Structure prediction request, 851 residues.
Amino acid sequence: MTNQNIKRATTKLMVSAAALLCSVPVYAQEAPQEAEKADQNAYNEIIVTARQRSETLQDVPASVTAFVESEIQTANITRPADFIGLTPGLSQVQTVEVGDLQVNIRGINSGRDTESSVALIVDGVLVTNPNALNQELDNIVQIEVLKGPQGALYGRNALAGAIILTTRTPSDSFQGFLKAGAGRHGLLSASGGISGPISDRVKASVNAYRRQDDGSFTNSFRGCDDCENFIEETGVTGRLMIEASDAVDLDVKARYSKIKAGGVTFNASLALTDTATAFNNPDFFEDPNQHEFIYLNRNDPDNQQESFNISAKANVDLGFGDLTVIGTYNDVKNSFISAGVSNSFGIYNANSVCQAEYAAALANPTKYAVPSPFFFTPNIANSFLPPYPNITCGGYQYQQRDQRDWSLEARVTSSGDGALNWMLGGYYANIKRHLVVAYGGDLGTGVQQKGFVPSTGPNPTDLLYDDDLYSNVYAGFANAAYDINDNVEAAVAVRYDVEDRRVSNNVPKIGPQTPGFGAFGTPACPSGPANCSYYINPFYNANPTLSAIPGRSKSFQQLQPKATLTWKPSSDLTVFGSYGYGFRSGGFNSSGTTATLVQAFGNLALPDGTRNLNGLSDDFKKEVSKAAELGIKAKLFDGKLTVNGALFHTVDINGQDFSFFAGPFGSLRVVTNIDKAILKGFELDFRLKPSSRLSIFGGVGITDSEIKKYTTRPYTVGNKVPYVPSYNANLGAEYRLPISNSVDIVTRVDETFVGKTWFSPVQEQILPNFFTAFGFGRGDFSKQFRKPYAQTNLSITAQAENWDVSLWSTNLFDKKFLAEIIPAPEFGGSFIHDSYGRTFGVRASYRFGGN
Prediction:
């Protein structure tokens, strides 16, 4: 990040701070000093479990951002994106589908089609499937975000950090709640629950929720405003807490949820600089940040997710410590189908259904208009049509990602009474995934949502990747913290992980199924699927003597140590330093990936002879982060001001980078490894309580990243790491005004800032692409980044003892910015996703019982 950009961000923060201070009245001596001190101490004494034991937020020697129940309510935190935007050093992207939430902590991204880089812990239980995070945050009472590698403490996938969610426990007396809300774009939500004792030693709770949202995007071709980025979500959770004896406690939870949503609501933004000059049309080389989004796909996108999770945790008091045993079972089914992206490659030009609809489009140019720079011509072979088109010639893309797993963890923890605290344990997980990526024709007669659809079906399959993936995970871990004296603590932790992985393939050796399928109108199967020039999976083209795609297996191991030194010169100051490792297992791309990319793009090269793509593999390596951190936490002015800061430096080895490819084969998602990258920066946050009624808070995170080596695209060395904003910051205020003895009005405003963001290692480069051979020139990707943006969120809540009503708005001033840019350099452009835009609504809740 340049000094000029840092100055701009700092100026924005200062101006916003002044505006917030001026807009909220402050009354001198409005409450006794004792009340003010007690209110601020309530925040200072938040208990967190960042080190798997209870400590106060200001004492724990780690960078932790916490949100308690009252803040979750007033900040209108209902989904993960809401608290991520309020956390320095964090950013997120969620565009393709509901399970596709990418979280970035200090420059390490969770990515697509890999293990998560962020561990998710719910009520002390590690969640195996990362898709579980992107759900309604129902019945949450505390959120903790722990930044920096936490592998030694939380194990697999805590490469960048951990998110710890705590839900409400069943109550000692009968009570319940009801919530309802409504908002813009057809937003409706409702939830409710009851809780209480079943017997002297058994308590239970049941909660359910429903949420639906028509979305903010409109399909202009079909004339619908509820068919693109809509979502419908329903879920129910049950919890049982049993005091089996004076020494044994059991905690059993089960959750079921079902989601139906839109997906893949992207537009194309081209980077064909030579074509823009030749045709005198700047739309061939546009700034994606200025793009006017138009949705005209003829098919309904359909994303479905169904999940069932159950966990049981037993805690046994051993006298000298506690034995904790945790078992989990998870079953998540996730799929989506949408219009295809490869219309520009003419892969269905020879299909009779496509030809008939193309003729209809020529006869009605107003109805079938496409945005510049795309165009129809009398001859379909000379047309240049957009992805996600309004005619059948684009086909369908289908993806399926199912996961079923179970795990078992056992650990023994010391009582915490002495100078030495320790933990020792082991972990096992068994994971099975079914991964399908398919591309097929659109015959205008509906769709079958599955991987292989034969030629007799409505969307016959022409490209297929279908793999079963199996993982066995073993780990042992230990940690200890020792109080050297009253002011100094030394802590060490270590974990050793082994992940044994294998994959088997399910793709038959047959040809494409759609009549006429083939690039630019040249059928691959002139006389039917039994007589084709290539197969449904290009692996068979590269290995024509094989009758099946062979399986693969690999084992990934990693030692994850961490050391922390903490100094507390006073009760109001904590200084700490740490160094630790994080680990994310390697894995497998879809079988046939390398053969597909070599067949389509293997001849593309820069003027110096360097190929666009190098060292491709159907496997990807494990990722290891090595991070150093120096932090400080301070309470000032009798606890009215808290300030936390941290410096960090991370070496990321074999970073797992998501790449997207569109070509005459359809579309393909691939994971490659950035051999080495450096991530360094700082974070600073504060909370000021000048009076009992007013709180002012904010923070900033600056991340400077650099790619040091990338074998796949060596010409990107020196570029920024993808998906890493140069900065992110937040500034807010909350004011509580009593209007009667029983009702307060709480007003909260949050301003968030996000810096310039690249989404691909390819940045300032000019590269050849598939269309270069057809006279469309090269692709210049210097504009393919997201510009900095800021947005304002506001809520006004009337609170009483047993009810509250809130008016809220997200992105109050309707700031326009891109949610994501997915560059596809070999396509010659990017696939871009708009942000949701301004929304607002009302929410009410009522609590009963509890006496």
In short: The longest helix spans residues 3-23. The chain has nine helices and 41 strands. Residues 1-40 have pLDDT under 50 and may be disordered.
